[in-house]
Amino acid sequence: MTGEHGTQLKVLWKKTRDWAYSIKNSCLNGTDRLLAYNMFLLPQVLYATPCMMADPISMQRIHRPALEVALNALKVNRNYPRAVAFSGPEYFGLDLNDFAASQGLAQLEMYVGHCCCQDQTGDLLLIEKDYVELII
């Protein structure tokens, strides 16, 4: 990562690490910790992800401290299988957000939204898509 995205990843990692440290040292119970994770941390971290290009490994590194707190709040070991932690209730999972998957979904929603609005950005994105298809 170079330039703005490298700096943005460092800021997100610091924000997640500081949040996890303050929550671990607080007197909140498990329900309040999970509520703080869902209502405070996730909106702050995932807000910027549609506009940045980060690889899944970087997003996992950013997510690790917060995920540890969330799993601990659910009385689950930190080595709990991630596939089960991130899957939904229909698969008997914990329905936690995966930062990398959330980033990809947000980028896809932004792309489709611009294409459906038929604005200048959508036109440029469609031109880029057609160009990439020609190269491939």
Provide structural commentary.
This protein is mainly α and 136 residues long. The protein has 6 helices and no strands. Helix 5 (99-117) packs across helix 6 (120-135). The mean pLDDT is 84.
Total beta strands: 0
Q: pLDDT under 50 segments (min length 5)? A: none
Average predicted local confidence, pLDDT:
84
What structural class do the secondary elements suggest?
mainly alpha
Approximate shape: elongated
Q: Report the radius of gyration as a whole number of Å.
A: 17 Å
Major sheet details: none
Strand content: under 5%
End-to-end Cα distance, whole Å, is: 24 Å
**Fraction of residues in H or I helices:** over 70%
Give the ordered list of helices and strands.
HHHHHH
Counting H and I runs of at least 4 residues, what is the number of helices? 6
Topology diagram in text:
Blueprint: H1 3-24, H2 30-46, H3 56-73, H4 82-86, H5 99-117, H6 120-135
Helix pairs in contact: 1-2, 1-3, 2-3, 5-6
